[in-house]
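Supplementary Note 3. Input sequence used for the single-chain structure prediction.
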Amino acid sequence: MLKFALLGFLNYTPMTGYELEGWMNASTGNFWHAELSQIYKTLKQLEKSGEVISHVEPQSSRPDRRIYTITAAGKTALDDWLTTPILEEVDKKDPLLLKLFFAAPADRANIITQLRVQLRLHQQKLDQYRNQSPTEILQFAADHPELLTNAPLWEATRRHGELYEEMYIRWIEETLQQFDPSS
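The predicted structure, written as discrete structure tokens, is reproduced below.
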């Protein structure tokens, strides 16, 4: 999937691996992210397969930049992927649920601690979706007016994240009530 995320970003505009990481962190990072090393590894594979090309842009005060551009083959691969329906439910892995499933009911203190830690983390993420992400979407659209028609789709993915976090927080709060009625 990282391949298609990178092709999607490069379909917007040519970028360096570092810029791709930044765009990913500010947008899809909420539901699809990658380490910089994974990005560069995948870019090399995409270049080898002919789906992207790159060129080096010399810089006087900094190291040279390698800029990647999507090719016609890359656009075809991206279009094929975008138009192919997802025919199965997407698997979700959640370490908290796995720990909770196997925790001993007698270990209330550990369960409560883990739930409270996750509650704080999900509250922080919800705050990001509500406050930071809309600003980033608007700024990105302002910086790239040629992509303004994509903004409603970006907003839809942000809203998904917001609703997911609200649900997860509600679930944690309900579960905490079972193990710690004083919560």
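The first strand starts at residue 52 and ends at 57. The CA atoms of residues 59 and 65 lie 7 Å apart.
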